[in-house]
Every structure is written in structure tokens, then in C-alpha cells.
Specification:
Layout: H1 2-25, H2 27-31, H3 33-51, H4 58-92, H5 100-121, H6 128-144, H7 146-161, E1 169-172, E2 175-182, E3 186-190, E4 196-200, H8 201-206, E5 209-211, E6 219-228, H9 233-242, E7 257-264, E8 267-276, H10 282-299, H11 319-323, E9 335-341, E10 348-350, E11 357-360, E12 367-368, E13 379-384, E14 387-392, E15 400-401, E16 404-405, E17 408-410, E18 416-419, E19 422-428
Parallel strand pairs: 11-12
Antiparallel strand pairs: 1-2, 1-5, 2-3, 3-4, 6-8, 7-8, 9-10, 9-19, 11-13, 13-14, 14-17, 15-16, 15-18, 18-19
């Protein structure tokens, strides 16, 4: 009896040491470690029965036979599960499965295998009560764990459909953040405040989820600003587009756009649309753009309008002043020339009635252009016959006013003067 106990204990210790050694070195052994340890216990019992022949009842032999059969089947099924979940689905197909899914699936398979092998080893044993008891128990547990099971299956659907992935920036309801973890029950978001937001997967299945990273992390940012309605829109457009230069995170392509959204009372509402590379930085990028817009609009003398109303009462004109007509009442209207397109884009020159403004490639001109189609002295603009008048100075390629060739023309507000690819706009303070 003592020899049998020592022999079985020695066999158990030897097998445990061998399994633990191989477990540290081989990945495959680590995956089937539990069945191997149980097999070591069965082997120790078998050694005991060999060394103690009198202690070998028939029931013990059948139990050993059933346990060996079960362990063999469990080992094979564990290897198949390893291939299915870890190699085929995860490594080859790239599915990110909830951690509990393989464990629950394999537990169910092991339970079914144990019942089938028990029926094969003990034909006279009736396993129907066991199955019925298991079904009732499963029903009770299912009703009790309904919210948890709902989150579990929702997590399974998320893992298969992949509406979002790790590191994606998503919005759920009024909450948004970066996905840092997807478990079998919950999804974890890292918010802008660096807080961890835990959302049950069942809620994700019911809510509308906006994924800013699919199909591409590039995102459009919109910034609105209201400006005085007397400010020419082409000037506003150029200033707002120039504000996007050198802003970190703003993409050059697609290029920024400016849209006039609405004509409000005494103001025009514009919208600057820019493309940014990561929506997670839209708050900082929007702030940088507003800083730049305020500075540039201030430099250009463009007033930002706010939702206010002002009532202005025009002063009464004296009858004597109304009768003072004639040429003496009509003086030169304040005017200027704005370069809207071309190498000198953005330049503004005020017109002086006493000295005509000249335009050309010569440095002696009031407005010197680098336009290759411009002559040395291309045109002049001066106050003649009670109007600002453009005169072409026999240029080689000619001058166009509002798309039509012109040698001499009386200019009206917002007339477009083109010399090759350079476009200038005639502006006055009275429209």
C-alpha cells in the first residue's frame, strides 16, 4: 500500500514538473496545460491501481476510461478552438473578438462533450435529467443576466461588423472620444478632457454612432463669421483663405473654401471651410483660425458684425443746399484700385484726382506689375469729365473692362479691369 502511494505520488510529481517545464518553453503546451495536468492526476491513479492490484474495482476502471476519453476529446477540441479563434479569425481574417467569446464557446463545447462521452462510457446511465436540469438552469440564468447577455451579443456584433476600431474617433449621442478598448460588455472612450468614458455595448447598438475616421480621418471644419455688408465679398474671400496658411493641422489639399451663407440685416454671413487631418484636434485648429481671422480682418479694416440692430436717422437737408447744384457740388468720389488676382494680389491703391494712377511693368508706374502681358506703361486712371476714366496707353495686348476690350471707359463701382491674368477691381465709397 505504501509502495503504491509513493509510486503514484512520484509519477504525479514527475509529470507535473515535466508539464510545467514544457509549458514555459512551448506555446502549444501552454494552451493545453489544464487537460495535461488533469491527465497527470489520472495517470497517478492508474499507477496506484497497477501497484495495488487488489484495489481495482470495475467502477474505477470505467471512470478512468471515461476521464481519459474526455481528456483526449477536450485536448483535440482545445487545439481546434485555438486554430479557429486565434489563427483563422484573429490572425488571418483580422476579427477582434470579445475576450469572453472563446471562453464561453469552449465551455459549452466541453460540457456537451462530457455528456456525450459519459453516455458512451456508461451506457446504462440516463443523462436526460442532467440535460433537463442544465436547460432549466440556463433559462434562469439567461433571464437574470439579460442585460449582461445583451451587452455581450452587442459586443459580438461590433467585433464582426467593425463599425469602429481601436483609435477611431467616434461620437455617440452627445459624447465623443477616441476608442481605446472594446471588451465583451463595454466600449471605452478617451474624451478630450482625457477622461475614460465607459459605454455599454447594448447602448451602442441602440444609438447612432458617428465614426469620424471612416472611410478617412480627414474632416471638414466650418467657421462662420459675419462682416459688414459694404465689404466686398471678394476681399473677404481672399483674407479668409490667407488666414489658413501655416495653421498646424490644416490641409492644403483639398484647398480651403469660403461660402456666403446669408444676407443678414446690415451684414453678410460667411463660412470658411477647411480640411483637417484629425478631428481630435478640431477645437485647437478652430481656435487658431479664429485668432488669425480676427487679426487679419482687423488689419484690413473689416468689422465683424454681431447680432445687433442700429437705427440711423438721416439729417434734414436745407433747401438752400439742395439748390446749390452744378459742377461745384459734384467732386471726385473717393476711389481705389484693388488687385484681386495675379502676382500682386491683395494690393490696394487710392486714386488721386490731381495725379492719374498709372499701371504697367515699369517701376516708374504707380502700380508696378510683374504680369508678362502688361506693357511698360499699360493704362492710366484719372478724374476726367466728372468721372474716373480708364485710358489704355496703346498697350501691346490691350485692356479688358468687365470682359470687354476697352481703350477708354468711364469706370463704375466694382468694374473688373483685366491685364492678362491680373485682375483689378475699381472700388468707390459710394455705391
Amino acid at each position: 500500500m505504501t509502495l503504491a502511494v509513493l509510486g503514484s505520488a512520484g509519477a504525479l510529481a514527475l509529470l507535473v514538473v515535466l508539464i510545467s517545464t514544457l509549458q514555459r518553453r512551448l506555446f502549444l503546451i501552454r494552451q493545453v496545460a489544464f487537460p495535461l495536468y488533469v491527465a497527470a492526476v489520472i495517470a497517478a491513479v492508474w499507477v496506484f491501481t497497477l501497484l495495488q492490484p487488489t484495489f481495482r474495482p470495475v467502477a474505477m476502471a470505467r471512470v478512468l476510461h471515461w476521464m481519459l476519453l474526455l481528456l483526449g476529446l477536450v485536448t483535440v477540441l482545445r487545439l481546434l478552438g485555438l486554430y479557429l479563434f486565434d489563427i483563422h479569425l484573429t490572425a488571418r481574417r483580422g476579427l477582434r473578438l470579445p475576450p469572453l467569446l472563446p471562453a464561453v464557446t469552449m465551455a459549452f463545447v466541453y460540457l456537451l462533450t462530457s455528456l456525450v462521452s459519459l453516455r458512451l462510457s456508461f451506457p446504462q446511465l440516463n443523462v436526460t435529467p442532467l440535460i433537463a436540469t442544465s436547460a432549466v438552469t440556463s433559462l434562469v440564468l439567461g433571464l437574470a443576466l439579460q442585460p449582461i447577455l445583451g451587452n455581450f451579443f452587442a459586443g459580438l456584433v461590433i467585433s464582426i461588423e467593425k463599425p469602429f476600431r481601436i483609435n477611431d474617433w467616434i461620437r455617440v449621442g452627445d459624447q465623443e472620444g477616441r476608442v481605446v478598448s472594446i471588451t465583451w460588455r463595454t466600449t471605452h472612450l478617451r474624451t478630450r478632457d482625457n477622461d475614460n468614458l465607459v459605454i455599454p455595448n447594448g447602448k451602442l447598438a441602440d444609438e447612432r454612432v458617428l465614426n469620424y475616421y471612416y472611410p478617412h480621418p480627414m474632416h471638414m471644419e466650418r467657421i462662420k463669421v459675419s462682416l459688414d455688408s459694404d465689404t466686398p465679398p471678394y476681399r473677404v474671400r481672399q483674407v479668409l483663405i490667407d488666414c489658413c496658411t501655416d495653421i498646424q493641422g490644416v490641409l492644403d489639399k483639398p484647398s480651403p473654401e469660403v461660402h456666403a451663407l446669408a444676407f443678414d440685416p446690415s451684414a453678410i454671413t460667411y463660412e470658411l471651410r477647411v480640411w483637417i487631418e484629425d478631428v481630435a484636434h478640431n477645437s485647437r485648429i478652430g481656435s487658431d483660425l479664429r485668432y488669425r481671422m480676427w487679426e487679419e480682418l482687423k488689419k484690413q479694416g473689416m468689422a465683424i458684425r454681431y447680432p445687433t440692430q442700429t437705427v440711423e436717422l438721416a439729417p434734414r437737408r436745407r433747401q438752400g443746399a439742395a439748390r446749390e447744384g452744378g459742377a461745384a457740388a459734384e467732386g471726385p468720389r473717393p476711389a481705389r484700385l484693388y488687385v484681386a488676382e495675379g502676382a500682386e494680389r491683395g494690393h490696394t491703391l487710392a486714386l488721386d484726382a490731381g495725379a492719374p494712377l498709372t499701371v504697367g511693368r515699369s517701376r516708374s508706374c504707380t502700380l508696378a506689375l510683374t504680369e508678362p502681358n502688361a506693357s511698360k506703361e499699360h493704362l492710366k486712371i484719372g478724374w476726367e469729365d466728372d468721372a474716373w476714366t480708364l485710358t489704355d496707353l496703346d498697350s501691346s495686348f490691350g485692356t479688358q473692362v468687365n470682359g470687354q476690350p476697352a481703350t477708354r471707359a468711364a469706370l463704375q463701382p466694382l468694374d473688373r479691369i483685366a491685364i492678362g491674368n491680373t485682375v483689378m477691381i475699381f472700388e468707390t465709397d459710394v455705391h
